[in-house]
Amino acid sequence: MTVKAYGAHASDQPLVSMDITRREPGAHDVQIDIAFCGICHSDLHTVRAEWAGTLFPCVPGHEIVGRVAAIGDHVTSHKVGDLVGVGCMVDSCQHCADCEEGLENYCDNMVGTYNAPTADEPGWTMGGYAQQIVVHERYVLRIRHPEQDLAAVAPLLCAGITTYSPLRHWKVGPGSKVGVVGIGGLGHMGIKLAHAMGAHVVAFTTSESKRADAKALGADEVVVSRNADEMAAHTKSFDFILNTVAAPHDLDAFLVLLKRDGTMTLVGAPATSHPSPNVFNLIMKRRAIAGSMIGGIPETQEMLDFCAEHGIVADIELIRADEINAAYERMLKGDIKYRFVIDNATMAA
Ligand SMILES: [Zn+2]
Ligand SMILES: [Zn+2]
């Protein structure tokens, strides 16, 4: 079937309206009318070919929410009319150790929601900046939030799970002192989630102007990381630091804030590496630096249910499809609190 979408024909071209083909639903497929799609920084990097390997035309989008329009004959987990979401992946091998543990995000054959090789036309996946998508039922999530929150639920599918998964893996909860570095699309979710898990949350920002915002998001304390005295006051005190900053920066400034056996986990993906940390800062207190990439399908469902239960959604600005290019420019200036979400009903115009 042919659907309207927004995508780019080349890395130096703006996104424009285009027609794309979706496969007819197979026995295990769910066909979804997309209501909203969040805009992730990965979309911008991919469309502009800032990471290697972008295939054009490129239709990005992996923060997808909508309603089931049709299901294949063997689909048991979703029915027509259900509110559902699709995140960063639409397939994986389904039988490796990672897939069997529900960690499809680490499968060597994970298929990204866009720009990943597939048997479907045109040979690579096309994402959520479109009227509809067809996805294997295993990779379709149930949404239990009230329908009026649907647009603000969309960013949970990438920004939400990217921050939820490491907070759970490193066992953040009541009694934990947690730092969240960077207050953007990822960081604002990290603050909300860590707060809801019962941790004492300290937000780190480079800008004085975000102090009140961070408090409103749920931070117990806010540290302006350029202020050496403020930083020093937290030396050797954190159990866990979630670092969401994608730009290369001095990791040592935060490592020394971890107490013995503390971990700092990086979830931002910089185009060039961070300067190497001082190994003594790791050795002396048995500290660790780790990384984490989105989360598996069962954990993504757990995150959505946790957010529905705690009334957690993203802070968003809803835009029309023809405003996507302008939104990208504002994202590059950091001029968004905290996620743009596309109203996909405007794709048809
Ligand atoms: Zn993303
Ligand atoms: Zn696998």
Characterization of the model:
The chain is of the alpha/beta class. Helix 6 links the parallel strand 11 and strand 12 (221-224). The protein is built from 11 helices and 17 strands. The radius of gyration is 20 Å and the shape is globular. It has 2 domains: 2-158 and 295-347, Quinone Oxidoreductase, Chain A, domain 1, CATH 3.90.180; 160-291, NAD(P)-binding Rossmann-like Domain (Rossmann fold, 3-Layer(aba) Sandwich). Helix 4 (159-169) crosses helix 5 (185-196). One zinc ion binds next to loops.
The CATH top-level class label of the largest domain: Alpha Beta
Q: Give the tally of structural domains.
A: 2
CATH superfamily of the largest domain: Medium-chain alcohol dehydrogenases, catalytic domain
CATH topology of the largest domain: Quinone Oxidoreductase, Chain A, domain 1
- Relative strand content: 25-35%
Rg (CA only): 20 Å
Instruction: Tell me the span between the first and last alpha carbons.
Output: 18 Å
Mind summarizing the main beta sheet?
7 strands, mixed
Number of helices: 11
- Helix- and strand-based class? alpha/beta
Low-pLDDT stretches are none
Residues in helices, as a percent range: 10-25%
Oligomer: single chain
Mean pLDDT score, rounded? 97
Order of helices and strands: EEEHEEEHEEEHHEHEHEHEHEHEHEHE
CATH architecture of the largest domain: Alpha-Beta Complex
Can you count the beta strands? Answer: 17
- List bound small molecules: zinc ion
Shape: globular
